[in-house]
Structure formats: structure tokens, C-alpha cells
Amino acid sequence: MNTMTLTDCQALDAADPLRELRHLYDLPAGTIYLDGNSLGVMPRTAPARVAEAVTAEWGRDLIQSWNKAGWFALPQKVGDKIASLIGAAPGEVVATDSTSVNLFKVLSAALNIAALDAPGRKVVLSERSNFPTDLYIAEALCKERGYTLRLMDNDGSQPQVLAELAPDVAVLMLTHVNYRTGAMHDMAAITAAAHAAGALTVWDLAHSAGAVPVDLNGAQADFAVGCGYKYLNGGPGAPAFVWANARHVDRFWQPLSGWWGHAAPFEFTPLPATSAARNPSSA
Ligand SMILES: *Cc1c(COP(=O)(O)O)cnc(C)c1O
């Protein structure tokens, strides 16, 4: 077997089709950075934009900036930009909260829908090799709702995932690209198999959004979440994102609605008028 030399690597770099984009990012001279899985590098435009947000939008314009600077609409505006990277349509993605919190919301929503369509199914299926936060969130939710979190001790192989889609599985929750091995699931094939087996899918895109092509609508996936500060270069503290397939929107309800979930937030309604419509158990 040939051993890769420094010259070989430099030749590959020179032929890299993404080479021209290198100047868009600011890295200390001489740094080779391979940790976009933990914190994406800083875009060159970020410092000036952050300074403007702090000094002009916050410091000078104060409360006006909710509207004048478009702060109110940023979750949707940023969501639309992310949508184009993950095969989602405009209006389907919202940039908000952390990946962990978003996972709680969509897994709750998926369990709510599964409880209506297939009330006997009481299992959330995932992989033991999934990222810890995904398993902690799923375990907490399963405990609270009387579900079982079943973990596959697999190598990420597709035949095993398909074989584990038993008739008691309500939701299959997978991370698209494994954080440790880099192995990528075939989202379309697994989603189709899950649907054929009567289960819904929740996909975590933390290691795929911004790194590899993702096609949520093409795969007919049900729900997805992803990270803003890794391959999307959003910076520390950047919100994560959440997506729901449009076919579920009429039946989508989740346990963490805040005042911005109300159609008219500035009416400061003591209880959202939409809560009955959103919660089939009280309809
Ligand atoms: C990084 C990562 C998260 C991070 O969740 P936070 O809420 O941002 O801490 C979640 N899931 C996966 C698969 C990750 O790799």
C-alpha cells in the first residue's frame, strides 16, 4: 500500500474544488483545522457583523431593532438559508434553541402523532453509538411517557437497522452521520423502510448539515434537528435548527410552546387560544 506524503496532500489540496472558498474563512496562519465537527471556523465577515449587531442594533437602536433590524424574523430568515442546504422548503426550518431542546420537541411531536396513528407502539429505537445527548433526551422522554428506549448495538449497518424495525417501534431516531465513525446512514432507504414498518423517523443532522448533501423532503423524512455552530459556522452559542415535514404540520404539537407560539403574541393572552386546536387530547 502506498503511504501518503505531504506532497500528495498538497496536490490534493491544489485540486480541491472547494479551494476557492478558503478565503471566506479566517484562520490563524499555518493552522490546519479539522474540527468543524465541534466548532466551525469563523467567516471573515463575522466580526464586523457582530460588532454592528452589538453597537448599532442593540447599543444605539435599542428596542427598535426588534423590527428595524429584523430580529423578530431571524429564526425564519436563517431557517430559510439552512433549508436550502438540507433539502427543505422555505418556511419549513426554524433556527432556534439548542439541538438537545429541539430534539426533545420533535421527538415529543413524533410520539404524539404515533400515539394517534399507532397507539400500541411503545418503543423509540436508536443506536447505542448515537451522540450521548440524543440518548439522554430520548431516555428522559421515554421515562416520562412510559415508552422504552431500545438501543441497537450495531456497527451502523443498514441491514441491522431494517431488521430491528419491529411492530412495536413508534419512532426511529438516528443521527445521519455518526459523530465518532463518520458513517452515514442512507436516509431515504431507512426512512422508506421505517414508514413501511409503521414507524416515524427523527433525524439528527449535527454532522451532516453543511458537510454533505442532505435531502429531507426527497427522503420523505418526518422530523429533523441540527446544529448551528459545527459545520454551519454559526459561532459559539449559535442556535440550532428544527424541521418538520409539511405533511405533519396540522398535527404538530410539542410541549414547549412559548408566547411566540401564539398567532398574536402581543395580545398577551393568558392561555394561548390555539392550545385546544393544537392538542388533540383536549379537542
Ligand atoms: C454536537 C451534537 C449535539 C449537540 O447538542 P447541543 O444541544 O448543541 O449541546 C447533538 N447531537 C449530536 C449528534 C451532536 O453531534
Structure summary:
By secondary structure, the chain is α/β, with parallel strands linked by helices. It contains 10 helices and 9 strands.
Structural topology:
Elements: H1 6-14, E1 25-26, E2 42-43, H2 46-60, H3 65-68, H4 74-83, E3 93-95, H5 99-117, E4 123-127, H6 132-145, E5 148-152, H7 158-163, E6 169-175, H8 187-196, E7 200-204, H9 216-219, E8 223-226, E9 241-244, H10 275-278
Parallel strand pairs: 4-5, 4-6, 6-7, 7-8
Antiparallel strand pairs: 1-2, 3-9, 8-9
Helix pairs in contact: 5-6
Tell me the series of helices and strands, N- to C-terminal: HEEHHHEHEHEHEHEHEEH
Can you tell me the overall shape?
flat
Q: Count of helices?
A: 10
Biggest sheet, open or closed, and with what strands and sense? 7 strands, mixed
The set of bound ligands, ions and cofactors reads:
pyridoxal-5'-phosphate
Structural class based on helices, strands and sheet pairing: alpha/beta
Distance between the termini: 66 Å
Gyration radius, rounded: 21 Å
List how many beta strands DSSP finds: 9
DSSP strand (E) fraction? 5-15%
What is the average of the pLDDT values? 93
